[in-house]
Design brief:
Blueprint lengths: L4 E7 L2 H4 L3 H6 L3 E5 L8 H10 L3 E9 L5 H14 L5 E6 L7
Parallel strand pairs: 1-2, 1-3, 3-4
Length: 101
C-alpha cells in the first residue's frame, strides 16, 4: 500500500479548515490522519517503520497553525531522521480560517 507512494500525514482537523483540501493535498497521495492531542499513539515510531520499510517518493505534512498540531510535524521530522532516508519533505500550515501559510 505504501510502496512508491507520495505520503500525506495530515492533522484530522486540517481537512475541515481548508475547502480545497482534497484537490490541494489528498489527490494522488496515500493519506495518514491523526491528532497528536487526542490520540494515544507514538506517531514517530509508526511513521519511522513506514518510511524505513517502503519506498516513499515524498512526504507532506498538512497541519493547522495551532500549537497542538506541532506534534504531528515533529513526529514526521523525527521519523524521517530515524528512517535514514533522504525523502523530499514539505509542511503545509493552514490557518484557522483555511488559508495556506
Amino acid at each position: 500500500y505504501f510502496q512508491n507512494a507520495d505520503l500525506l500525514v495530515a492533522a484530522d482537523c486540517a481537512a475541515y479548515a481548508h475547502s480545497n483540501f482534497h484537490a490541494d493535498f489528498i489527490a494522488g497521495r496515500v493519506v495518514l490522519i491523526g491528532c497528536p492531542k487526542l490520540d494515544d499513539a507514538d506517531y514517530a515510531e509508526k511513521l519511522t517503520q513506514i518510511l524505513r520499510y517502503n519506498t516513499i517518493k515524498s512526504l507532506t505534512v498538512a497541519r493547522m497553525e495551532v500549537p497542538c498540531c506541532g506534534g504531528i510535524q515533529r513526529a514526521a521530522e523525527a521519523a524521517l531522521a530515524a528512517s535514514g532516508k533522504d525523502i523530499p519533505y514539505k509542511v503545509a500550515v493552514l490557518t484557522t480560517d483555511g488559508r495556506i501559510l
